[in-house]
Write a structure and sequence with these properties.
single chain; alpha+beta; DNA polymerase, domain 1
């Protein structure tokens, strides 16, 4: 849906519609994407952890692992006391799986999710690798907001393969609470006239902006829920906590006027597509890449974005991700060049079975320029044919192959 376009029948109204998208047990979901047999199994992802070791801390525990008392930030040794490793206890039905953090891979998957969010939101505020706010006021209306939220979830699940919980509300803090309300894989819509009722039973620790210390101080004042906070004397809160007290009082009443503001322009634009299982029909891969390249180039043109790098991503079984990219002499807006470069880069994978293919333009430049083709970077006399076009053979392209060409793998930071 083009930016600014609303669903049919969407009325003019002052209320914002904000989505908070939060990926469920994101690191664990990424590991399951790579190893589908881990679906439904207790799974622990550890920071500073190596296979077979007992050091490190829990970064993410799947919901199945949490049932055994494994929690985020818990020492791996303590987690093992509650949930032994399947590798060491293969016959124990109460054993689980442990994996070390693979941040490059998680950033790659998170980048795929963010591309969908930028496509669906009027404005997007990224909070972390697995969390973002979207303002969709101009995209939908309250009477169909639930369907829009479901569409966001389904796009992420279908195109990336990881689950997300979505909260829809007229403000950021309520939307965040809504996304937490029915995890995992939840969808909660809080319309403007439902905000106070929805917030009232929320535990004070869960109110957006209330930390553990502040929560303890509020409980000492007899304030245990958001409803209690909303009903409290605002002057007493200001006397105790300063302006922060006034702000928390407003949020407990559903008054949060913060706009969803992006933290900066995107660094890249990409589109990806999975096949129904790995395919050895490479012409099919090429044709899909052409379609994706056209879509990416069109998005760049509509966003007034020039790009200095064109790249492809190819995923081969089981889930090995390869990227190749080519740097250009300067920023361009050239759809034909996107097709030419991506097709050249794909040649390397002609004999591979492919699960997914993607096209990306990066190192974006949003400055207003009239120049949109590489001929502006060629010497005025370089082409020799006077038609303003550039002979691609007359300039050196700086091929950016993967850092790990030795093993066919890639540093996924190249495709962030």
């Amino acid at each position: 849906m083009p930016a600014g376009e609303r669903l049919p029948g969407a009325p003019d109204r002052a209320e914002r519609i904000v989505l908070h998208v939060d990926m469920d047990c994101f690191y664990a979901s990424c590991e399951r994407l790579r190893e589908p047999e881990l679906e439904g199994e207790p799974l622990v992802v550890g920071m500073g952890y190596e296979a077979g070791e007992t050091i490190g801390a829990v970064a993410t525990a799947s919901y199945e692992a949490r049932e055994y008392g494994v929690e985020s930030a818990q020492a791996i040794g303590a987690a093992l006391d509650n949930l032994p490793r399947k590798a060491e206890e293969p016959d124990d039905p109460d054993a689980g799986y442990y994996r070390p953090v693979d941040m490059d891979f998680y950033q790659e998957v998170g980048g795929e999710v963010k591309e969908i969010l930028y496509e669906l939101g009027d404005t997007v505020r990224e909070v972390s690798i697995d969390e973002a706010y979207l303002d969709v006021t101009e995209r939908t209306a309250w009477d169909v907001a639930e369907g829009f939220g479901r569409h966001v979830k389904q796009r992420i699940q279908r195109e990336v393969g990881v689950p997300a919980s979505v909260g829809v509300a007229p403000d950021m803090s309520t939307a965040k609470l809504a996304s937490d309300h029915d995890k995992p894989d939840g969808l909660v819509v809080v319309e403007p006239d439902e905000v106070r009722e929805f917030l009232a039973p929320i535990e004070i620790e869960d109110v957006h902006g209330v930390g553990p210390v502040r929560a303890r101080e509020l409980r000492e004042m007899g304030i245990d829920t958001a409803g209690d906070l909303a009903a409290a004397d605002p002057y007493e809160l200001v006397e105790r906590f300063g302006e922060r007290g006034r702000e928390l009082h407003r949020r407990a009443r559903g008054v949060d006027n913060r706009p969803v503001e992006p933290r900066g322009k995107p660094k890249s634009l990409s589109r990806e597509s999975s096949f129904d299982g790995a395919t050895d029909d490479f012409e099919r891969v090429r044709e899909q890449a052409r379609t994706l390249g056209e879509a990416v180039a069109d998005r760049a043109t509509r966003k007034d974005a020039f790009y200095r790098t064109i790249g492809v991503k190819v995923v081969t079984p089981p889930y090995d991700v390869h990227t190749r990219a080519e740097s250009l002499p300067g920023p361009v807006d050239d759809p034909d060049l996107v097709e030419d470069v991506t097709q050249d880069l794909l040649d390397e994978f002609a004999d591979e079975r492919v699960r997914k293919v993607g096209v990306r333009v990066s190192n974006l430049d949003f400055s207003e320029r009239e120049q949109a083709n590489l001929d502006g970077f060629a010497d005025a006399d370089a082409s020799g044919d006077g038609d303003g076009t550039l002979d691609r053979g007359r300039y050196d392209r700086d091929r950016e192959d993967d850092q790990s060409d030795r093993d066919g793998q890639v540093s996924l930071g190249d495709f962030e």
